[in-house]
């Protein structure tokens, strides 16, 4: 009997590309809204998760329900700072349509969420403010998790922290916030680094995230929630800044070490004096710090569980971070 296929949404994205590299040898169908994959290989179906039945003709949709046994739902609007309705149309409605498909197919769902949902638990004295650049995105991810929890569809949820490049090469198909901020610091574009006391800087290599999902599918393991983070083992703010300065100097740049300040202590006049791009980066860093602080300063982690149960490699976050910085500089 032919193995039922994996339907992968968001295959052209950072996580999607990392997943394809880990799903070799398995039948994969990629649902793309437009365009094509960077490299040929898997079967591609053009559809739109924000539309019922993915906007597909009935015969195509029904064919997929017969062929697919597992859905990896990675597609989402991940850009921060957008109006809530933008996330409603893609992230929340998209998950609802994936649930409908999974029911029709008798398939399980492996959902890529975000570790930032920890900020909504309400257990920290620091609260995620409505004006935080991540708030609408995080709320949409939490809403999607709740849809799955209430659906009755077999599923697992994966909550990665900020993604960096491949653990061995540093490569990524698209720079993420970590790489953008690293470039900003590495070029000496501002002299402050906002961070709440006690926060850790938690980043995870994209292939580590993909390996966890791929291994769960190989084992047909569903009904789990995994925090793809380093938790208590993550870098301190000082360590992260030191790595950024070390990298800048290795590329021949001599920059001042930015001062680490509490976001509440940022000087409004000093911020106004910065170029708009630098001011924006400072504000984004302050908002990310608030998310981490609202999560307790240290994110929950399933890393040791994944290493022990799934045999995931023990990859040091600092080494992976260094490789991402080097890859971004080349």
What does this entry look like structurally?
This protein has 330 residues and is an alpha/beta fold. 43% of the residues lie in helices and 15% in strands. A 7-stranded parallel β-sheet has the order 3-2-1-4-5-6-11, sandwiched between helices. Helix 2 (58-67) crosses helix 3 (84-105) and helix 3 (84-105) runs parallel beside helix 4. The model has no long low-confidence stretch (mean pLDDT 91).
Question: What descriptive keywords fit this protein?
Answer:
two-stranded parallel ribbon; 330 residues; seven-stranded parallel β-sheet; 15% strand; globular; 11 helices
* Number of helices in the DSSP assignment: 11
User: If you compute it from the alpha carbons, what radius of gyration comes out, rounded to the nearest whole angstrom?
Assistant: 20 Å
Spatial order of strands in the largest sheet? 3-2-1-4-5-6-11
Low-confidence runs (pLDDT<50, min 5 residues)?
none
Main beta-sheet strand count, sense and barrel state: 7 strands, parallel
Total strands: the figure is: 13
Multimeric state of these chains?
Answer: single chain
The amount of beta strand, in percent, is 15-25%
Level of helix content? Answer: 40-55%
Q: Describe the global form.
A: globular
Q: What would you call the structural class?
A: alpha/beta
Secondary-structure element string? EHEEHEHEHEEHEEEHEEHEHHHH
